[in-house]
Amino acid sequence: MERKEWPLWEVFVRSRNGLDHKHCGSVHAPDAKLALQVARDVYTRRQEGVSLWVVQADHIVASDPDAKPELFDPAEDKIYRHPTFYQLPDEVNHM
Amino acid sequence: MYTQALDIPQQNTEAKGPRTIENPAYQAEFDAKIDAGGYIEAKDWMPESYRKTLVRQISQHAHSEIVGMLPEGNWITRAPTLKRKAILLAKVQDEGGHGLYLYAAAETLGVSRDELLDALHSGRAKYSSIFNYPTLTWADIGVVGWLVDGAAIMNQIPLCKCSYGPYARAMVRICKEESFHQRQGYDLLLTMMKGTQEQRDMVQDAVNRWWWPSIMMFGPHDKDSTHSAQSARWGIKRISNDDLRQKFVDATVEQAKVLGVTMPDPELKWNEARGHYDFGAIDWDEFWNVVNGHGQGNVDRLAARVKAWDDGAWVREAALEYARKHDARDSQAA
């Protein structure tokens, strides 16, 4: 595969144990090892994390923004999936 | 500000990118989102002119961060103590990081990193005029932190709420880090002001040279700023150039008193009726001269930047070649 630029990697940081890795930005790097190194320098200069993930950007499969209605609207009218849908007597409402 | 060159006529810095098809239904949806104060994300439909404006603005901003490393980097080896050297190294590294956050945000709009860098290196793209002034003494490093980064913060805080999500998120990260830059600069100057008369004179001299360029960073007056109205409509610009400049002047004049320096402006005085400081006329000829490439440092800055890029070419190529070799080996093994 002919590459002129270093490929793009998405960077995910776990800020401390007990929390999820969260997307925080992207870097260019020639391979995975250097992507981690660059991500450390760019995104964790102030103890922002205890663990890093890097994923080559073109390996991420994203939902189509035009498909937002069919993907996400069906959840809109299912309010019975939320605990607040159910009105209980005051004495037991902390349930 | 860092993107003040938006006010000069459009040059062909635009790289190729996905062309958006004009569509009235999409346009209405976009307008509604902007009006509601919502965010536009990378894959959302956007008008071509919105995309182009953002590419110009974010890339100018990124270039400014990268070129901004040069006037300060120039003092790393001459920092007076190990503590100050460590601080300056951290600050310059931050500026590099800020440039990278911003290039990544610009790339979400469909331009490549190499295209953006090529526009800078070939002189087609602009960066902030402030970085074309020389840093002559150690006091300049303090004044750059206090005034230049101070002005940048003033401008960048409203950008944290701009309508383009990736830009807004980059700005949140940058603003968090920028506060350290301003405070270390002021701290450096306070230390010098407690020193000898010669050191105090050095601080005053640096303030005299940086004051006007700093307030020019906010860009032309509102009445002369050609892109402001459209950018305000799009939620890219939340506060006008003149309002931000006034806010900056009001804040820094008080800080100058604590420091014990004066601003080189005889017309600077408190206006009770307005509740603001009045200040003298800005020399816009000088401003445009520097923006258009005729400042003291334009040629040197760009040459230093291009040299760094060219000198690093073999490293980039070697790293890619190494990655290719390993890809090939991995696919053979598979």
Counting DSSP H or I runs of 4 or more residues, the number of helices of chain A is: 2
Category by helix and strand content of chain A: alpha+beta
Helix content of chain B: 55-70%
Would you report the number of β strands of chain B? 2
**What general outline of chain B do the C-alpha atoms trace?**
globular
Overall structural domain count of chain A = 1
What structural class results from the helix and strand content of chain B? mainly alpha
What string, H for helix and E for strand, traces the elements of chain A in order?
EEHEH
Shape of chain A: elongated
Average pLDDT over all residues of chain A: 90
Distance between the termini of chain A: 59 Å
Secondary structure: number of strands of chain A: 3
What is the fourth-level CATH superfamily of chain A?
Phenylacetic acid degradation B
Q: Work out the oligomeric state of the chains in this entry.
A: heterodimer
Low-confidence stretches of chain B: 10-19
Note poorly predicted spans of chain A: none
Strand content of chain B: under 5%
As laid out across the biggest beta sheet of chain B, the strand order is: 1-2
Please report the first level of CATH classification, the CATH class of chain A.
Answer: Alpha Beta
The interface involving the most residues is between:
A-B, 19 and 26 residues
